[in-house]
Each structure stands twice: as C-alpha cells, then as structure tokens.
C-alpha cells in the first residue's frame, strides 16, 4: 500500500496525506481523522525515512544543475519547467542551485534542512557527488546515469536507442554513408557518459546496417570548429550522405554550412538531430529529430521523488524513457 491508496480511500489529495504524516501544514481534525482511519484500514505505515522527516518538512525541492560554459541553457528549460510544475501541483517550491560546490553543496542543502528532497542533474561518469548523494538523509533522484548507479534512483532517456533510431532513419531514407558530428575537446573533458554512449550506438548501428561511417570532430566551439565541414560533405554528397547531430547547436551550424555550399538539407544531404520537437520545427527546414523527451524524463523523476516523500521504499534502479523519432523535411525517401 502507498500514500496514494490512503488518499483515495480518505477522499483527499496525496499532499494532504503527506501533511498529516509530516505536520508541515495545518489540517482540520475531521480530515486528519479520515486520513488516519484510512491508514489503519489499509495497514499503511510510512517507512523509517518518511517518519524521520516528520515535523521538519520545508516543502522545498532542491534542483542541482552544474552550468559549464558550453551548456545549452535552452535545453534545460523543459526540465526546469516540468520539475517546477510538478512541485507546484504538490504545493512544493523549487530552489535551483547552479553553483558547482560538489559533494559539499549537497551536504549543505540536506544538512541544514533547506530542502526535503533533491533532483541532481548533469551527471558525469565518475561524478564526485554520487557517493555523497547515497549518504544523504533526504531522498535524491538523479537525472542521468553515472558509471556506478547502485543505491540510487536514476532517470534518463535511452541514449543508445536514440543513436540507433537516427541511423535507422537515415538508412531507410537512402543514406549510404553516415557522418556523426562528434564532440569538441571541452565537451569530452566534461566526462558525460551519455556522450560516449551515443557515439558508440551511432557507430554500431551504421556498421550493422552495412553503411560507411565516419566522425567529424569539431576542434573548437561554435563555427570555428567546422572550418572544412562543408567541403567534406560536398565531396560525399553524390553518395547519399546522412548526418547525425547530437545538439541543436550542431544541427544549426551543419544546416547553415550545407546551404552555403548549395546543398539543401533533406535533398543533397540528410540530417537527423537529437532535440525537442519545438526546436526541430523552429529551423528554416524542419529537422527530422529524435526527441530526448525531457518533460517525460522530468515527470518520471518527480513521480519517483514524491513517491519517496510519500513513504514508498526506494527502488534504487535506472529507469529509461524511450526517445521518439519524427520524420520531417531533412530526411526524404530517395529512389
């Protein structure tokens, strides 16, 4: 039994059940009696973690995200908006922490009773915050997956599936060669696991499909890293080339360079990008995209987090949301 079952039987919201258990809000005697009766009828007992929180709830969720200089801030907005909306629905506020204080920052948030739970983003493969997160007295959910996720609840989209979907689309629409726009040295230095996973999945899918494959590695941020990209694609355009771009910035630069070389995206070369639908449809040529489903990832993370706050036992598992491909103007079936 969960707090949701108690809420249904008592005819109240889950947040009301939470308030009865925590004492964080004033509840009428009649409502409290209904909730307590429902708990007895269902033999519902909040776990030790929930009992430990009783009487000291702040009704604040901590959202911790590191923002290095190469971060695509626009890509963070769907996460922030969904996490904030989910929190408001439960009468919680969100405090956004962007300073990279490492483990000390997490311990400060939890140790000073500033927040009731933490959502931790921008997870590196060997993230030094992960060990600290396992020891905190408040629930923690990671958006992202470290190399060692044991003992933590992690939510993300299926990055490997995203790479396979992109290649599958290019092959189905006639591409005989796949070019993956790789990462700049500064991105590789961040040590995000998903970067390597995505690159490996694109390469594996291309090899399995029997098409030629190569990586174009920008050697600097922005336009400066793409100095010979247009000439390279022009050389290969006659062989039906398909391009995979992992970020909106890479999509934008690639499309503009193609057009400057007289190549129309979707005709002289195909492009599949990893980005949201809103971003994909904002380009001059609507981009065939694999959506990382940031809102669904965030919704699942908050569902997991509030389950913990409502007394559910920790699942300590990695939950992946399936990405979704939508064909648009930048891929077209060629005879």
UniProtKB/TrEMBL annotation:
Pfam families: LacI (PF00356), Peripla_BP_3 (PF13377)
GO molecular function: DNA binding
Keywords: DNA-binding, Transcription, Transcription regulation
Every HTH lacI-type domain range: 1-55
Name of the protein this chain belongs to: LacI family DNA-binding transcriptional regulator
Organism the protein comes from: Kineococcus glutinatus
């Amino acid at each position: 039994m969960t707090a949701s079952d108690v809420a249904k039987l008592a005819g109240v919201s889950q947040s009301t059940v939470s308030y009865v258990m925590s004492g964080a809000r004033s509840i009428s005697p009649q409502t409290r009696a209904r909730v307590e009766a429902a708990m007895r009828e269902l033999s519902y007992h909040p776990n030790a973690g929930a009992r430990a929180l009783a009487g000291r709830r702040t009704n604040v969720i901590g959202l911790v995200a590191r923002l290095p200089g190469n971060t695509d801030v626009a890509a963070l907005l769907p996460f922030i908006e969904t996490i904030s909306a989910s929190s408001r629905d439960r009468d919680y506020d969100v405090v956004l922490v962007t300073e990279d204080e490492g483990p000390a920052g997490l311990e400060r948030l939890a140790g000073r009773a500033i927040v009731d739970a933490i959502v931790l983003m921008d997870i590196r493969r060997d993230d030094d915050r992960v060990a600290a997160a396992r020891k905190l007295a408040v629930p923690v959910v990671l958006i992202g997956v470290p190399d060692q996720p044991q003992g933590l609840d992690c939510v993300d989209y299926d990055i490997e599936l995203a790479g396979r979907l992109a290649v599958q689309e290019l092959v189905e629409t006639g591409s005989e060669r796949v070019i993956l726009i790789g990462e700049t040295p500064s991105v590789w230095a961040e040590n995000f696991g998903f970067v390597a996973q995505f690159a490996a999945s694109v390469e594996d899918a291309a090899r399995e499909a029997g098409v030629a494959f190569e990586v174009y590695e920008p050697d600097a941020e922005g336009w400066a890293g793409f100095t010979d990209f247009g000439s390279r694609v022009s050389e290969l355009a006659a062989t039906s080339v398909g391009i995979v771009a992992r970020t909106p910035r890479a999509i934008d630069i690639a499309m503009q360079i193609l057009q400057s070389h007289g190549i129309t995206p979707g005709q002289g070369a195909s492009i599949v990008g990893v980005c949201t639908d809103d971003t994909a449809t904002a380009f001059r040529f609507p981009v065939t995209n694999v959506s990382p489903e940031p809102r669904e990832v965030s919704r699942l993370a908050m569902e997991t987090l509030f389950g913990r706050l409502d007394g559910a036992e920790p699942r300590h598992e990695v939950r992946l949301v399936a990405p979704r491909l939508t064909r648009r103007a930048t891929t077209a079936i060629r005879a």
